[in-house]
Protein backbone atom coordinates (compact mmCIF):
# COMPACT_ATOMS: atom_id res chain seq x y z
CA UNK A 1 0.00 0.00 0.00
CA UNK A 2 1.38 3.44 -0.91
CA UNK A 3 1.57 6.26 1.62
CA UNK A 4 -1.48 8.02 0.20
CA UNK A 5 -3.80 5.02 -0.06
CA UNK A 6 -6.57 5.20 2.48
CA UNK A 7 -6.17 8.96 3.01
CA UNK A 8 -8.79 11.51 2.01
CA UNK A 9 -7.62 13.70 -0.88
CA UNK A 10 -8.10 17.45 -1.34
CA UNK A 11 -8.66 19.73 -4.32
CA UNK A 12 -8.05 23.48 -3.93
CA UNK A 13 -10.27 25.39 -6.37
CA UNK A 14 -9.39 29.04 -6.85
CA UNK A 15 -9.88 31.74 -9.47
CA UNK A 16 -6.11 32.24 -9.31
CA UNK A 17 -3.57 29.56 -10.13
CA UNK A 18 -1.08 31.33 -7.86
CA UNK A 19 -3.42 31.06 -4.88
CA UNK A 20 -4.14 27.36 -5.48
CA UNK A 21 -0.46 26.57 -6.04
CA UNK A 22 0.59 28.59 -3.00
CA UNK A 23 -1.92 26.82 -0.78
CA UNK A 24 -0.61 23.50 -2.04
CA UNK A 25 2.94 24.53 -1.07
CA UNK A 26 1.77 25.54 2.41
CA UNK A 27 -0.41 22.50 3.04
CA UNK A 28 2.27 20.11 1.80
CA UNK A 29 4.56 21.34 4.56
CA UNK A 30 2.00 20.05 7.06
CA UNK A 31 0.60 17.04 5.24
CA UNK A 32 3.28 15.57 2.94
CA UNK A 33 1.57 12.18 2.55
CA UNK A 34 -1.85 13.52 1.56
CA UNK A 35 -2.90 13.80 -2.07
CA UNK A 36 -3.66 17.47 -2.76
CA UNK A 37 -4.27 18.97 -6.18
CA UNK A 38 -4.43 22.67 -7.11
CA UNK A 39 -7.19 23.60 -9.55
CA UNK A 40 -6.61 27.30 -10.01
CA UNK A 41 -7.35 29.59 -12.92
CA UNK A 42 -8.78 28.89 -16.33
CA UNK A 43 -7.47 26.43 -18.91
CA UNK A 44 -5.59 29.22 -20.69
CA UNK A 45 -3.99 30.54 -17.49
CA UNK A 46 -6.41 33.39 -16.89
CA UNK A 47 -8.43 34.37 -13.83
CA UNK A 48 -11.44 32.13 -13.32
CA UNK A 49 -12.19 28.47 -12.75
CA UNK A 50 -11.87 25.43 -14.96
CA UNK A 51 -14.31 22.54 -15.12
CA UNK A 52 -11.57 20.42 -16.70
CA UNK A 53 -9.08 21.16 -13.91
CA UNK A 54 -11.62 20.33 -11.23
CA UNK A 55 -12.62 17.01 -12.78
CA UNK A 56 -8.97 16.09 -13.32
CA UNK A 57 -8.13 17.19 -9.77
CA UNK A 58 -10.79 14.95 -8.28
CA UNK A 59 -9.44 11.95 -10.19
CA UNK A 60 -5.85 12.69 -9.10
CA UNK A 61 -6.75 13.29 -5.45
CA UNK A 62 -8.93 10.20 -5.03
CA UNK A 63 -6.94 7.51 -3.24
CA UNK A 64 -10.06 5.55 -2.33
CA UNK A 65 -11.12 7.33 0.86
CA UNK A 66 -12.87 10.23 -0.81
CA UNK A 67 -12.08 13.77 -1.87
CA UNK A 68 -12.87 17.12 -0.27
CA UNK A 69 -13.17 20.20 -2.49
CA UNK A 70 -12.44 23.67 -1.09
CA UNK A 71 -13.31 26.78 -3.09
CA UNK A 72 -12.46 30.47 -2.87
CA UNK A 73 -15.48 32.29 -4.36
CA UNK A 74 -19.09 31.48 -5.15
CA UNK A 75 -18.59 30.74 -8.83
CA UNK A 76 -15.85 28.24 -7.90
CA UNK A 77 -18.50 26.34 -5.95
CA UNK A 78 -20.71 26.36 -9.05
CA UNK A 79 -17.85 24.90 -11.09
CA UNK A 80 -17.32 22.22 -8.44
CA UNK A 81 -21.01 21.34 -8.39
CA UNK A 82 -21.04 21.07 -12.19
CA UNK A 83 -18.04 18.77 -12.07
CA UNK A 84 -19.83 16.50 -9.57
CA UNK A 85 -22.78 16.22 -11.95
CA UNK A 86 -20.49 14.62 -14.53
CA UNK A 87 -19.05 12.01 -12.18
CA UNK A 88 -20.35 8.48 -11.93
CA UNK A 89 -22.51 7.62 -8.95
CA UNK A 90 -19.75 5.80 -7.08
CA UNK A 91 -17.21 8.59 -7.55
CA UNK A 92 -19.75 11.30 -6.69
CA UNK A 93 -20.58 9.57 -3.41
CA UNK A 94 -16.95 9.96 -2.31
CA UNK A 95 -16.73 13.72 -2.91
CA UNK A 96 -17.72 16.59 -0.63
CA UNK A 97 -17.76 20.32 -1.36
CA UNK A 98 -16.99 22.32 1.78
CA UNK A 99 -18.11 25.91 2.37
CA UNK A 100 -15.09 27.14 4.34
CA UNK A 101 -12.29 29.72 4.04
CA UNK A 102 -9.96 28.34 1.40
CA UNK A 103 -6.58 28.82 3.09
CA UNK A 104 -7.50 28.20 6.73
CA UNK A 105 -9.91 25.42 5.81
CA UNK A 106 -7.39 23.91 3.43
CA UNK A 107 -4.59 23.58 5.96
CA UNK A 108 -6.94 22.30 8.67
CA UNK A 109 -8.40 19.72 6.29
CA UNK A 110 -4.91 18.69 5.16
CA UNK A 111 -3.79 17.89 8.70
CA UNK A 112 -7.04 16.03 9.42
CA UNK A 113 -6.48 13.93 6.29
CA UNK A 114 -2.81 13.36 7.11
CA UNK A 115 -3.62 11.78 10.47
CA UNK A 116 -6.04 9.37 8.81
CA UNK A 117 -9.36 11.09 9.43
CA UNK A 118 -12.33 9.86 7.40
CA UNK A 119 -14.03 12.19 4.96
CA UNK A 120 -16.50 13.52 7.51
CA UNK A 121 -13.65 14.32 9.92
CA UNK A 122 -11.82 16.18 7.17
CA UNK A 123 -14.97 18.13 6.31
CA UNK A 124 -15.44 19.11 9.95
CA UNK A 125 -11.82 20.23 10.18
CA UNK A 126 -12.27 22.47 7.16
CA UNK A 127 -15.52 23.88 8.53
CA UNK A 128 -13.81 24.69 11.83
CA UNK A 129 -12.06 27.52 9.98
CA UNK A 130 -15.34 29.37 9.57
CA UNK A 131 -15.10 31.04 12.96
CA UNK A 132 -14.77 28.21 15.44
CA UNK A 133 -11.15 28.98 16.38
CA UNK A 134 -12.11 31.29 19.22
CA UNK A 135 -14.09 28.49 20.82
CA UNK A 136 -11.78 25.67 19.87
CA UNK A 137 -11.01 24.28 23.24
CA UNK A 138 -11.45 26.55 26.23
CA UNK A 139 -9.81 25.49 29.49
CA UNK A 140 -11.75 22.49 30.90
CA UNK A 141 -14.08 23.08 33.81
CA UNK A 142 -12.23 20.53 35.91
CA UNK A 143 -8.77 21.49 37.18
CA UNK A 144 -5.93 19.89 35.23
CA UNK A 145 -4.66 16.61 36.60
CA UNK A 146 -1.27 17.16 34.98
CA UNK A 147 0.39 20.31 33.64
CA UNK A 148 3.75 21.07 32.11
CA UNK A 149 5.11 24.45 31.06
CA UNK A 150 7.69 24.56 28.27
CA UNK A 151 9.60 27.46 26.74
CA UNK A 152 9.72 27.31 22.94
CA UNK A 153 13.27 27.09 21.63
CA UNK A 154 12.97 26.73 17.86
CA UNK A 155 13.41 29.87 15.77
CA UNK A 156 9.84 30.38 14.60
CA UNK A 157 7.96 28.67 17.43
CA UNK A 158 4.69 26.97 16.56
CA UNK A 159 4.54 28.11 12.95
CA UNK A 160 2.95 25.99 10.24
CA UNK A 161 5.02 22.79 10.13
CA UNK A 162 5.81 22.50 13.86
CA UNK A 163 2.19 23.27 14.72
CA UNK A 164 1.08 20.48 12.39
CA UNK A 165 3.57 18.06 13.97
CA UNK A 166 2.31 19.06 17.42
CA UNK A 167 -1.33 18.52 16.44
CA UNK A 168 -0.59 15.19 14.76
CA UNK A 169 1.04 13.94 17.96
CA UNK A 170 -1.84 15.22 20.10
CA UNK A 171 -4.29 13.29 17.94
CA UNK A 172 -2.51 10.01 18.67
CA UNK A 173 -3.71 10.18 22.29
CA UNK A 174 -7.25 9.60 23.49
CA UNK A 175 -6.84 12.00 26.40
CA UNK A 176 -7.93 15.58 25.79
CA UNK A 177 -5.03 18.01 26.08
CA UNK A 178 -4.90 21.78 25.92
CA UNK A 179 -2.05 24.19 25.21
CA UNK A 180 -2.51 27.62 26.78
CA UNK A 181 -6.18 26.78 27.11
CA UNK A 182 -6.72 25.78 23.49
CA UNK A 183 -7.43 22.33 22.08
CA UNK A 184 -4.05 20.74 21.31
CA UNK A 185 -5.64 18.52 18.65
CA UNK A 186 -6.88 21.50 16.57
CA UNK A 187 -4.41 23.04 14.12
CA UNK A 188 -6.30 26.32 13.88
CA UNK A 189 -6.58 26.59 17.65
CA UNK A 190 -2.86 25.99 18.15
CA UNK A 191 -1.76 28.36 15.37
CA UNK A 192 -4.08 31.08 16.67
CA UNK A 193 -1.96 31.26 19.82
CA UNK A 194 0.90 32.86 17.90
CA UNK A 195 3.56 31.15 20.01
CA UNK A 196 7.10 32.14 18.99
CA UNK A 197 10.56 31.39 20.39
CA UNK A 198 10.95 32.43 24.00
CA UNK A 199 7.25 32.22 24.78
CA UNK A 200 5.88 29.56 27.12
CA UNK A 201 3.37 26.86 26.35
CA UNK A 202 1.30 25.44 29.19
CA UNK A 203 0.29 21.90 28.28
CA UNK A 204 -2.50 20.51 30.46
CA UNK A 205 -4.92 17.63 30.73
CA UNK A 206 -7.78 17.04 33.13
CA UNK A 207 -7.89 13.40 32.02
CA UNK A 208 -6.51 10.83 34.44
CA UNK A 209 -4.79 9.17 31.48
CA UNK A 210 -3.38 12.43 30.13
CA UNK A 211 0.09 12.31 31.70
CA UNK A 212 1.67 10.47 28.78
CA UNK A 213 0.20 12.90 26.26
CA UNK A 214 1.38 15.94 28.22
CA UNK A 215 4.86 14.46 28.57
CA UNK A 216 5.15 13.60 24.87
CA UNK A 217 3.92 17.00 23.72
CA UNK A 218 6.23 18.76 26.14
CA UNK A 219 9.19 16.72 24.92
CA UNK A 220 8.34 17.61 21.32
CA UNK A 221 8.31 21.33 22.11
CA UNK A 222 11.57 21.10 24.00
CA UNK A 223 13.19 19.26 21.10
CA UNK A 224 12.79 22.30 18.88
CA UNK A 225 11.29 20.11 16.13
CA UNK A 226 14.76 19.46 14.77
CA UNK A 227 15.21 23.11 13.80
CA UNK A 228 18.46 24.89 14.46
From TrEMBL:
Pfam families: EIIA-man, PTS-HPr
Highest rank taxon of the organism: Bacteria
PROSITE patterns given in the database record: PTS_EIIA_TYPE_4 (PS51096), PTS_HPR_DOM (PS51350), PTS_HPR_HIS (PS00369)
Domain (PTS EIIA type-4) ranges: 7-133
Enzyme Commission identifier(s): 2.7.1.121
Transferase among keywords: yes
UniProt keyword list: Transferase
Catalytic activities: dihydroxyacetone + phosphoenolpyruvate = dihydroxyacetone phosphate + pyruvate
InterPro entries (alphabetical): DhaM (IPR039643), DhaM_N (IPR012844), HPr-like (IPR000032), HPr-like_sf (IPR035895), PTS_EIIA_man-typ (IPR004701), PTS_EIIA_man-typ_sf (IPR036662), PTS_HPr_His_P_site (IPR001020)
Enzyme class of the recorded protein, top EC level: transferase
Residue stretches making up the HPr domain: 145-228
Free-text function comment from the UniProt entry: General (non sugar-specific) component of the phosphoenolpyruvate-dependent sugar phosphotransferase system (sugar PTS). This major carbohydrate active-transport system catalyzes the phosphorylation of incoming sugar substrates concomitantly with their translocation across the cell membrane. The phosphoryl group from phosphoenolpyruvate (PEP) is transferred to the phosphoryl carrier protein HPr by enzyme I. Phospho-HPr then transfers it to the PTS EIIA domain. Component of the dihydroxyacetone kinase complex, which is responsible for the phosphoenolpyruvate (PEP)-dependent phosphorylation of dihydroxyacetone. DhaM serves as the phosphoryl donor. Is phosphorylated by phosphoenolpyruvate in an EI- and HPr-dependent reaction, and a phosphorelay system on histidine residues finally leads to phosphoryl transfer to DhaL and dihydroxyacetone.
Subunit structure, interactors included: Homodimer. The dihydroxyacetone kinase complex is composed of a homodimer of DhaM, a homodimer of DhaK and the subunit DhaL.
Protein name, UniProt field: Phosphocarrier protein HPr
Native source species: Cryobacterium sandaracinum
Lineage: Bacteria, Bacillati, Actinomycetota, Actinomycetes, Micrococcales
